[in-house]
Specification:
It is found in: Cytoplasm. With 394 residues, the chain is an alpha/beta fold. Helix content is 40%, strand content 23%. Helix 4 (146-170) runs parallel beside helix 7, helix 5 packs across helix 7 (257-275) and helix 5 (178-217) crosses helix 9.
Length: 394
């Protein structure tokens, strides 16, 4: 699959932009702050329903506008699909497929992309929430119905937390909260599915991550991923415990999740009532990343951390490529090459060379390996000012 045409209206700093694209590599070049990343961010949003730079949608809508519109014509063989998304400052966002309305959460079913960005270093060095988001975005692209499961889980979690906070404020004991058991049942039902899906995904990523890491580094540092689950006693969101938590054995984690979840809630209920918050569930899980048997967070060098983050994205792309009926995902490299030394640049370029479409942003063209510079698009202040190898309207 590739994006054949991208249209933006009132998106970030673009009042309007129309860009024809094609298979192969395209490099967007321009000084920092001109809008290169905005172009590729919009493509990533169609796949993940989120930005890799901000948590909300308001920043994506141009100042003074009520809504932003992203349109992408996707091509796979002889098939074309027009995907449209309207981000509204007020009210729910809206989506269309071939001009027919659909739920926004349906878009990842059709638009597949994997985005590499400097922010990806946080996958290795950052908080558990970053790694949870990485896994969940990949899960939704592979199994779109899980977006609904995640939304339902978040709703139940908010309701349960609200009840716990109210009970704490009123000094109520557990036996005075019969509705808590009802919320527990839904939390366990939805949360167990998410836990099992994540654990299975971590297991699937193992070999592709190891292969991708070797392709970038040309060394075997034994990269590993291990689930760290709150239902088994790990508490990665509690400061000081994240690195000390013992990662769960994937074989054990896949067995009897509901029972373990139920028991964990029973044991932790007094502490939850004391703190007014849900202390167990997929919202408090992590995946521990290891190099040579040691946690990458805290032990890996800057270069090793970057290589691990890139390997995770490459492995994600390989899983999408393997499972998809629409061909390769679009690969997006947002200002990545500036962070890498020459050898890693060349090895990364070689590793992604076989994908149908690769979109690269760079402040300096010299940072981009020559095999990826077949087509160059210059960006200045939200305008496509010059292209080498094609023409377009702005």
């Amino acid at each position: 699959m590739h994006v054949a045409r991208l249209s933006l209206t009132d998106y970030r700093n673009y009042e309007r932009a129309e860009l024809d694209l094609g298979p192969g590599a395209t490099v967007f070049v321009g000084r920092n702050g001109q809008g290169k990343t905005n172009l590729v961010e919009s493509i990533g949003y169609l796949s993940t329903l989120g930005s890799h730079r901000v948590s909300g949608d308001q920043a994506l809508i141009r100042a003074g506008a009520d809504a932003a519109i992203v349109r992408a014509l996707l091509t796979h063989g002889d098939r074309e699909l027009l995907v449209e998304l309207q981000l509204n400052r007020q009210g729910a966002n809206r989506a269309q497929l071939n001009r027919s309305p659909v739920k926004t959460r349906e878009l990842p079913r059709y638009a597949h992309s994997v985005l590499f960005a400097p922010e990806d270093l946080a996958i290795v060095r950052g908080e558990p929430s970053v790694r949870r988001r990485m896994l969940d975005e990949l899960l939704v692209q592979r199994t779109p119905r899980l977006a609904g499961v995640m939304a339902d889980y978040d709703r139940v979690l908010r309701q349960r937390n609200s009840l716990l906070k109210s009970a704490r404020a009123r000094g109520l004991a557990a036996d005075k909260l019969p509705t808590l058991d009802i919320w527990d049942e839904r939390l366990i039902e939805l949360g167990s599915e998410l836990i099992d899906q994540r654990v299975a995904l971590v297991a699937e990523l193992a070999t592709p991550v190891a292969d991708a890491y070797r392709s970038i580094v040309d060394a075997d540092h034994a990269p590993e991923l291990r689930p760290s689950l709150s239902i088994d006693g790990a508490d990665p969101d509690d400061e000081g415990l994240a690195d000390a938590a013992t990662p769960a054995d994937p074989a054990v984690a896949a067995a009897d999740t509901r029972r373990r979840f139920t028991e964990a809630l029973r044991v932790l209920r007094p502490k939850e009532l004391e703190r007014g918050i849900t202390l167990v569930g997929p919202h408090r899980d992590d995946v521990v990343l290891l190099l040579n048997g040691l946690p990458a967070k805290g032990y890996a060098s800057h270069g090793e951390s970057w290589s691990f983050a890139l390997a995770l994205r490459l492995a994600s792309a390989e899983l999408l490529r393997r499972d998809s009926t629409t061909g390769d995902p679009v690969l997006v490299l947002d200002d990545v090459f500036a962070e890498l030394d020459r050898l890693r640049r060349e090895r990364l370029a070689a590793a992604i060379g076989g994908f149908e479409q690769v979109l690269v942003t760079a402040a300096v063209l010299e940072d981009v390996p020559e095999p990826l510079t077949a087509r160059i698009v210059h960006i200045d202040a939200g305008r496509i000012v010059e292209e080498e190898g094609a023409t377009t309207d702005v």
